[in-house]
């Protein structure tokens, strides 16, 4: 399928469309971008702390880190189409169980555990594996388009959820959101990953397809792997963790409710722009340098949001910068893994790094909630996040030039 950028998109547009829909209505988009909407409702109705509510995301982090590499092997053995087509409806159905919450924390966490396990086959590991195998010249742009789905969902789901809550209550809103991956994403992924592209979707060693890069064992011992791991831990905490808390962060800045809703929706728009812009930039420039610029922008955003109060325009700048930074996170990771570690064991290496990433992304919101419960402000933790981002911006430069490898072919 590989060729010029135009030829790649002409031959692979179904893969891109299916991957976009999968990331739009898969994991982490569904649970990650909706918990902030329902958290104040759970706190008021059940008397739960924000740390308790966001603790559900910690279960997602543990599941992705521990069980995620196993699902990566399923992708290689069964193919992305099979794994994603099963996982997406299971994710939606397990998410719907949150509508049965009755004040029992144990029941609430059981729902999150089901979401975590069922959604592991509908993460960026699946969709980026397909895109990285099918695209070369415009790999960054293709990844940016596919992974912009999460930003589109963040933009659309908040006003949609608020409307559904006003019409039918929060339980109805959860049921409708949970139905989206079942009735929309699953059929589109099943269709888009089928047909003549199957050899790219079911990338198995037995096919004899050419692979570049290191075996998983060697990759895990490499300098590049550990540099990526060290960079993405602070990046996940400092960029992804504030997003589910963004409504409450804006509320602590003394902004009116109407402005909070408008500003929160900007995150999704900026994230989509970040995905596309980042994808274009890594195709044109050295990816670590692009990452340095993006992480520095995130640090500026955290410093702005750490103030006691800000104007609407200043808050909008901070939200846009944060959204742009969050927009490039997964596609930058996918691109760097493919370039520095290669495609030979991509599913395993990326799944492991993705698991490390979500530790910060999913545990972080609970940490933010805990800090706010104890101090009544997010200022201190946001300032710490700014320092982490500056450190990551400097460290990513040590990856050095892209390695040049000889293609290795499986027998």
Automatic annotation (TrEMBL):
Question: Do you know which Pfam families this protein is assigned to?
Answer: MFS_1 (PF07690)
Named from the GO MF annotations, one term is:
transmembrane transporter activity
Keyword Transmembrane, does the record have it?
A: yes
PROSITE patterns for this protein: MFS (PS50850)
Superkingdom assignment: Bacteria
The portions of this protein that span the membrane are: 12-42, 48-71, 78-97, 109-128, 140-157, 169-194, 220-240, 260-277, 284-306, 312-338, 350-372, 378-399
Residue ranges the record marks as coiled coil: none
Keywords in alphabetical order, please: Membrane, Transmembrane, Transmembrane helix
Task: Give the Major facilitator superfamily (MFS) profile domain ranges.
Answer: 14-404
SUPFAM superfamilies registered for this protein in UniProt: MFS general substrate transporter
Protein name per UniProt: Predicted arabinose efflux permease, MFS family
Q: Which organism is it from?
A: Rhizobium lusitanum
Lineage runs: Bacteria, Pseudomonadati, Pseudomonadota, Alphaproteobacteria, Hyphomicrobiales
């Amino acid at each position: 399928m590989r060729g010029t950028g135009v030829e790649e998109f002409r031959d692979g547009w179904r893969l891109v469309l299916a991957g976009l829909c999968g990331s739009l209505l898969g994991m982490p988009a569904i649970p990650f971008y909706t918990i902030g909407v329902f958290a104040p409702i759970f706190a008021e109705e059940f008397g739960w702390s924000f740390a308790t509510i966001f603790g559900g995301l910690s279960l997602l982090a543990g599941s992705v880190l521990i069980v995620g590499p196993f699902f990566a092997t399923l992708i290689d053995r069964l193919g992305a189409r099979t794994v994603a087509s099963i996982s997406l409806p299971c994710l939606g159905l397990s998410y719907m169980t949150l509508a049965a919450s009755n004040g029992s924390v144990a029941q609430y966490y059981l729902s999150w555990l089901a979401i975590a396990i069922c959604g592991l086959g509908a993460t960026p590991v699946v969709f980026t594996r397909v895109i990285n195998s099918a695209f070369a010249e415009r790999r960054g742009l293709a990844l940016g388009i596919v992974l912009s789905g999460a930003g589109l969902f963040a933009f659309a789901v908040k006003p949609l959820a608020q409307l559904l809550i006003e019409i039918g209550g929060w339980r109805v809103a959860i049921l409708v959101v949970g139905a989206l991956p079942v009735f929309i994403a699953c059929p589109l992924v099943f269709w888009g990953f089928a047909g003549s592209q199957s050899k790219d979707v079911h990338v198995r060693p037995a096919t004899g397809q050419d692979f570049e890069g290191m075996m998983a064992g060697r990759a895990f011992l490499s300098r590049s792997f550990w540099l990526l791991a060290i960079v993405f831990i602070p990046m996940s905490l400092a960029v992804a963790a504030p997003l589910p808390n963004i409504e409450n962060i804006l509320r602590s800045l003394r902004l009116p409710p109407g402005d909070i809703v408008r500003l929160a929706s900007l995150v999704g728009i900026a994230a989509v722009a970040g995905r596309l812009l980042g994808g274009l930039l890594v195709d044109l420039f050295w990816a670590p340098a692009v990452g340095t610029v993006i992480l520095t922008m995130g640090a500026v955003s955290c410093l702005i949001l750490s103030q006691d109060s800000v104007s609407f325009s200043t808050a909008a700048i901070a939200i846009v910068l944060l959204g742009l930074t969050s927009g490039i996170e997964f596609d930058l990771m996918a691109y760097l893994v493919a370039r520095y570690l290669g495609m030979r064991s991509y599913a395993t290496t990326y799944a492991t790094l993705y698991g490390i990433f979500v530790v910060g992304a999913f545990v972080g919101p609970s940490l933010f909630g805990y800090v706010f419960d104890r101090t009544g402000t997010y200022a201190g933790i946001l300032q710490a996040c700014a320092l982490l981002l500056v450190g990551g911006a400097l460290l990513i430069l040590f990856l050095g030039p892209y390695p040049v490898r000889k293609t290795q072919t499986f027998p």
